[in-house]
Each structure stands twice: as structure tokens, then as C-alpha cells.
Amino acid sequence: MSIKPKKNKCTGTGKAKGFDSCGGMFYERTYGLCNKCYSKWLLNTPEGREKLSNATIKATSERKEVERERKQSQQRKRLRTQLTTTRNKCHEYIRERDKGKPCVSCGTPWNPTFQAGHLYKAELYSSLKFDERNVHGQCKGCNLHKNGNEQKYAERVHLRIGHEGKAQLDQDAIKYKQESFKWDAEELKKVYEYYKEKLKLLKD
Question: How far, in Å, CA of 161 to CA of 57, rounded?
């Protein structure tokens, strides 16, 4: 059995106590006032105007926060897209540069399925993600199924960049891992254009 709603008289209560209300009977009231009288109270009394102002400030603040979060989300999405685009261009260059060379880690003869493998992992050494000293043609077996075959990679990479180059890369890896590095849109754009130009020169 449902309980039938009861109408109540429009008369101010709480902050609206004493307000000159209409006295009609209504189902819905705020501070004891019907919607029409409540609107009048908001606009025509110091207490009402204060409440209205606070509500406006709160709503504005919430809208600004939602908008800020929306913009930040869009920026993160654009950055992820740009990271992927830059990575693809870098890897395309590495595969073209190392075409015909054996796998950097195991020496398997080159074939078209070779990938761009990192000595220092891209997810751990963000600043070396696009460093061409750190990225070389690698067979799928080493890159995907042997976790990059790191030990053999480290032993043989000097054949590509020399002993001094390997020593410098190791020093940079130690230095960079201690730093908190994040790619921004401007830097990613520069890296993309760099590899785009180098790839063009290789293919010309």
C-alpha cells in the first residue's frame, strides 16, 4: 500500500523564516517555500542572494574542473598518438638502415620480418626510446620470445656502434635512468621530422 503525498503550506522556514510567502498548498517546497516563492527569496533577500552566489561559484568551479580534466585527457590522448607515430617512423628508419644486416643479438641472417629492438628497454629508459645507438635490427625470436636477448645484444652491439659508442651508451643509460624524463609534443615532433628526413635520404 503506497502512501499518498501530502501538500504543505508555503511558509518560510530556516533561512527563509519570515519571508512573505504566498501561503498556498504544495507538494514540493524548499525552506518551506513553493518554487515560485523560493525563486523570489533567492533574488530578493540577502540570505537568498548569498545562497545563489555560492551555488553559482560552486557550479562554475565544477564546470571549470570538468573542462580542465577534459582538456588534460585530450592532451594525453594526443601525446599517446604522437608517441606511436614517432616510434613508428623511428622503427621504420631502423629497419631500413639495418636492412641486410644480421640480427644484432644472435646473428641470424636478415629477413624482411626483422624488427627494431632496443638494448635498453624503451619502457625503462624513456630518454633512449628513440636513440639510434640503442635501437637495431633484431629478429622476432630475440625481440619477442627472448625478451630482447639482452645479454647477447650487449655483447654484440659494439659491432654496430663501436666499443666507445657502447661505453658512452652505457654511461648515458645510467645517467638518464636517474632522471625523470617525459617526452612532450614539441620534442616528439622534432624526433619525427629527424627520422623522416633520415629515412628519405636512405631511400633516395
Answer: 61
121-169: pLDDT as tens digits: 998 899 999 999 999 999 999 999 999 999 999 999 999 999 999 999 9
- Which among 117, 128, 122 has a CA at the least distance from the CA of 171? 128
Query: What beta strand segments (E) does 111-164 contain?
Result: 115-118, 135-138
Extents of the domains making up the chain: 80-203
Contact criterion met (CB below 8 Å) for 19 and 41: yes
User: For residues 31 and 11, what is the distance between their CA atoms, to the nearest angstrom?
Assistant: 8
Q: How confident is the model at residue 58 (pLDDT cuts 50, 70, 90)?
A: confident
- 33 closest CA partner among 45, 44, 48, 22: 22
Residue 158 CB neighbour total at 10 angstroms: 14
Cell of 121: 628497454
State in Å, rounded, how far the first CA of the chain is from the last one: 85
Task: Convert 52-102 into a string of H (helix), E (strand) and C (coil).
Answer: HHHHHHHHHHHHHHHHHHHHHHHHHHHHHHHHHHHHHHHHHHHHHHCCCCC
Cell of 99: 636492412
